[in-house]
Structures are given as structure tokens and as C-alpha cells.
User: What shape does this take?
Amino acid sequence: MSEATARTELDRALALDIVRVTEATAVAAARWRGRGDEAAADEAAAAAMYREIARLPIEGVVVVGEGDEDESPILYNGETIGAGSSEGVTLDLAVDPVEGATLCAKALPNALSVLAVAERGSFLKVPVIYMEKIAIGPGYPDNLVDLDATPAENLEALAKAKGCQVSELTVCILDRPRHGKLIEEVRAAGAALRLISDGDIAGVVHVTEPRETGIDIYMGIGGAPEGVLAAATLACIGGQMQGRLVALNQEHRARARAAGIADLDRKYAITDMVSGDLSFAATGITDGSLLEGVRFTKDAVFTHSVVMRASTRTVRWIRTEHPDVGKFD
Ligand code: VTB
Ligand code: MG
Ligand code: MG
Assistant: This one.
């Protein structure tokens, strides 16, 4: 087998491997659903994710992780994990064991376990600060929306491209005081709002299926690591997104410097945040509009996941029955 063929085979196998990781992670988090303890859910999920990645035949480096080593003992940025690879398969990892810890703690919709893997150097190294984001689904002219345009301008451009009125558009925004002005501007422009309490990776992914989700565009400021993970999904499904880091204070600026960000004002396109081939997997922790949450029964655990690949644009929805309930302990 040529090296290239071996590599492709391995990539294909890895697609299933990464779902196994997010499945086990979601199961660990799901045991903490609705218990009001975000930290416990995060901890259990991170431990499960670490354990599963450690079994993979790769040399992995966490590029987009839970924070710096001093903030997070596990899955920290720069941590190396994996069982090692005789073929020298070195991969970058972008992780979020519980995307939406508050959603999980309150058993609200759309808490996910998320993992993306790519060749070395594929993910933008972002500090754990904020990122301003705008995203729309596939099938529109390039650069239709822009972070530097006003919300009204972006909504008008999108309505025109869709052949509808601005009043027929729904904008998804994180419900936060920092979005007061944005929310006012969107309402003044005449569009409807879907305000979400958390979970902006799911928020961004929603724009790719407006007919199912009812969401046409995502706007606003969420986490920077979540921005890179959202860009990873759009690299697989299609769609447009721009991101720009937001540093609210000195501490944020210091983190950005430490992460090697030279220009805080830079606008990132999807291809600036993720490049080359990558695979992305997510498993539902709680029920959501994309994925069902984990179900526990006497004889089995059931999970629902999606795995996607950028180079082939395959999107697989995977329902798994795990009769060996003990394997998650
Ligand atoms: C953001 C968003 C995430 O938490 O990080 C948010 O990207 C935290 O925002 O999807 P605040 O600091 O304003 O609370 C999530 O919603 C969930 O991790
Ligand atoms: Mg998280
Ligand atoms: Mg998160």
C-alpha cells in the first residue's frame, strides 16, 4: 500500500474512532444531566474524553482545548495524548467535552460533546477569550455577510439573496447583556430573534439547515474555541462564517499574546481558522434540534452522533446501541 493510500485508510477508520470518543464523553456527561453541577459534568466528560483519545493510534496534540495547563489539568492547550503511531500519524485536536455545561447541568437542549481532528497545523490557536461571529448556511454568493457591515446591511443582503423579506429571517444570538445593542439593531431591522442561553457551536450549525431549524443567520460574541470548532463544522457541511477575537480586558490581551496572536483585530474566514482535511464529531448529551441526547435503559445505552469530513464533505448520522453498559465505567 502506498503511503497516501495507507493514510486515507487510516483517516477513514479514524472517523469512527472519533465518534467512539464523543459517545463515551457524552455518556459520562449525561450522568450529570440536570444535577446543577457544571463542574462535575465537565470533569467527568473531560476524563472520559481523555481516556478514549489516549487509546487511539495517534500522536495527538490538543490545540483547541479547555485552556492553559494552569487553568485545566486535562485536555489543556498543548497537551499530547494518544497511544502513539508507528506510521507517524500526528494530529491536532480541537475538543469541547461538554459544549454547554450549563445546558447539561440544567438538562436544557443542545448540550454536545465535540471533537475535531486534523493534520498538524490545521487549527487556529486561539486563547480562551471571546470571538465575534457571523455565519450563514451554504449556497450563497461569497462574502454575502461581513462582520464590518451593520446588522441591517447583513440582513438585507441575506434577505435579497434568499428572495425574502428581512421580516422572514430569524437570527440566532446568545442571550447576554453584551448583545443589547445588537439585539436592538436586529429588531429595528425587522428580523426575528432566537435567543439561546448557551451553546453557540450548535447555534452556528443551525444556519446550515434553515428549513429544519428555522435559523437563517448566527450573530454575536461567544467563546473563541467554540468559534474554531464551529468553523470546523462549516468546513465540512458548507456555509460562510467570519470570526474576530474580542479581548475585554488586560488578561484577555495577555492570553492572546501568549497564544501568539499578533493582530487582535484580524477578521478570520473559515479557512483561516481551519485548513486542510479534518474530521469533526459531535454526540448529543441532552436532546436538541440536531442530535438526541443519551438514553439510559436497563440493557443498553443509546447515543446519537454526527461525524463529518471536510475533504469529502460526508456527513454521517450515527445512532448507536451500546449493550455493554459497563464499558463506560
Ligand atoms: C460561550 C459560547 C459557548 O458559553 O463561550 C458561552 O461560545 C459563554 O459565554 O457556546 P459567557 O461567558 O457570556 O457566559 C457557551 O454558550 C457554552 O459553552
Ligand atoms: Mg466545555
Ligand atoms: Mg464550550
